[in-house]
Specification:
Blueprint: E1 34-38, H1 42-53, E2 57-61, H2 67-75, E3 79-82, E4 94-99, H3 104-116, E5 121-123, E6 136-140, E7 143-147, H4 154-167, H5 172-189, H6 194-207, H7 216-230, E8 237-242, H8 253-261, E9 264-267, H9 273-276, E10 284-287, H10 299-311, E11 315-320, H11 330-339, E12 344-347, H12 352-360, E13 372-377, H13 391-394, E14 399-404, H14 410-419, E15 427-432, E16 440-445, H15 449-456, E17 462-466, H16 471-488
Parallel strand pairs: 1-2, 1-4, 2-3, 4-5, 8-11, 8-12, 9-10, 9-11, 13-14
Antiparallel strand pairs: 6-7, 14-17, 15-16, 15-17
Helix pairs in contact: 1-2, 5-7, 6-7, 10-11, 14-15
Length: 496
């Protein structure tokens, strides 16, 4: 049996690996190419300076130049100033054309003539007459990052640029140049596939540190020789990665790195599309979700896939929602892989209980209310409550209890807690789809748990939290409800 074919029948319902793009980001080689600039303003000067930085030969058509533009031309021999207006002949052999026009009539004339000449054209600050836009740039050339908001929010693009500037050390420029200089040498020493990627991943680990030194190149090439000696081309590995509750911004840096290095990603049904968007584009994505009431992969089949892929030399990421070591089959998967001699490591993720606490602004072990927290599975293999739970202990409200996967057993949880002596007015919360766009929450008391879950629904994963740690959240919900009653004259639902 081919384990790679054991995917659920609904795997094609997932969105495409690449979300829609407002514009195609393209990095364009202009070295030695003719560029036409019409206009002598400061805005035109900035665009001309940008093109000159790319090595273009700049032909400026303007009867007069701003002081900034004149100074730029005097300092740089790549500029040719034509003291006249542009004409159709100006576009001959041009690779790019840019203009700063005072009105739409002049912009339309320049745009139409450039299009007739087959030259890509941009009229500054006139999107109607632009075949392309300039992004906000982070320059670590040969590493270049460009940010675009499709003209909707240039200030936002600038803010993003500032954030990226702080993340990319200046030394990255030197590392990128070094990578360019040794690429051919590495390619002759290390075979394509896993060995070559292993070399470059080690390179990247160093590239975000101190600047390379004189002996760095020799050390890197020695590393390439060691990779060949190890013959890593036939050895794969598996990494269990926690995808968190759904919000991609809650991924750890290590999780993102694992996704970027993967050959194959086996992901659960609950992993969000935003998380998958961060994965390496070339990685094969395989849905192996297990979810109540739906077609699912058997755990044995998932184990077989991981073994087969790793033995084929693939870097496999087993991507699990939340934290892989909490209420998952991580233990079984690790044991299976270790029996086969396959290297496996784990990248923890933010578990849903922690995300729920953060969303509610609640400390699960607030010293005034609780001295411990416990995570409890809300269903067994049969879909019912687990048989051996200590309900007398669970009814102790000085410990915060979070029930996972508890949507369909909420009524039973309420009944068992009350039967064990818990006060029916004990604070309780219910949340579904924590941190996602369709997140819903309810804050109330244990006695109303079943009705709360019925109101929220069980289409998405449900968490139930019980204990005095939620008392302040409960008080806030009561105050909000009272204000709503004053405003509208009737009780309002507490699920939102």
């Amino acid at each position: 049996m081919d384990a790679l074919q054991l995917l659920p029948s609904d795997r094609n319902t997932r969105p495409a690996r690449m979300a829609s793009l407002a514009k195609l980001p393209v990095f364009w080689a202009l070295d030695g190419k003719r560029a036409v600039i019409a206009g002598g303003s400061d805005a035109a000067a900035w665009k001309a300076e940008l093109l000159a930085a790319c090595g273009a030969e700049i032909h400026v058509y303007a009867e007069e130049l701003s002081e900034t533009f004149a100074s730029l031309i005097n300092q740089d021999g790549r500029f040719l100033h034509h003291r006249k207006q542009w004409s159709p002949a100006s576009f001959q052999s041009a690779a790019i054309a840019i203009a700063d026009c005072e009105d739409d009539e002049a912009a339309a004339a320049f745009f139409d003539e450039a299009c007739r000449a087959g030259v890509p054209v941009n009229v500054i600050d006139k999107p109607k007459y632009c075949q392309f836009q300039f992004g906000s740039i982070v320059n670590r050339s040969p590493v270049v990052v460009a940010i675009s908001t499709d003209g909707a929010a240039p200030i936002l693009a600038q803010a993003i640029r500032r954030r990226i500037e702080t993340l990319l050390p200046p030394a990255l420029k030197s590392w990128a140049a070094l990578a360019h200089s040794i690429r051919d040498k590495v390619n002759t020493r290390v075979s394509p596939g896993a060995p070559r990627r292993a070399f470059w991943e080690n390179f990247v680990d160093r590239a975000f540190g101190a600047a390379p030194e004189a002996e760095t190149e020799a050390g890197l090439l020695a590393d390439a020789g060691r990779i060949v000696t190890k013959n890593t081309s036939s050895s794969g590995r598996v990494t269990l990665v926690g995808a968190g509750p759904g919000d991609a911004e809650l991924l750890t840096l290590k999780a993102v790195r694992a996704l970027q290095a993967a050959d194959v990603i086996l992901f659960d049904d609950l992993v969000s599309d935003e998380v998958l968007e961060l994965a390496r584009r070339e990685a094969k994505r395989m849905l192996v979700g297990k979810r109540g009431g739906r077609t699912s992969c058997k755990q044995e089949d998932i184990n077989a896939m991981m073994v087969q892929l790793a033995k084929a030399g693939k870097r496999v990421v087993r991507l699990k929602s939340g934290d892989p070591m909490i209420f998952g089959r991580a233990g079984e998967e690790i044991a299976c892989l270790e029996r086969q001699g396959i290297p496996v490591d784990v990248v923890p993720g933010i578990t849903s209980a922690s995300a729920m606490a953060a969303r509610l602004g609640v400390s699960l072990t607030h010293r005034d209310h609780a001295q411990a927290v416990r995570f409890v599975t809300g269903h067994s293999r049969r879909g019912d409550l687990p048989e051996h739970l200590d309900w007398q202990n669970l009814a102790e409200t000085r410990t915060t209890t979070i029930f996972y996967m508890s949507g369909r057993t909420a009524g039973q949880i309420r009944t068992r807690l009350l039967a064990a002596g818990m006060d029916s007015a004990t604070p309780a919360v219910v949340m579904s789809a924590v941190t996602r766009s369709d997140e819903r929450r309810w804050i109330g008391i244990v006695d109303d748990l079943a009705d709360a879950v019925a109101r929220i629904g069980v289409d998405n994963p449900i968490l139930i939290g019980v204990g005095q740690a939620f008392s302040e959240a409960r008080a806030g919900a009561v105050n909000a409800e009272e204000r709503q009653q004053q405003d509208y004259g009737q009780p309002q639902a507490r699920a939102f």
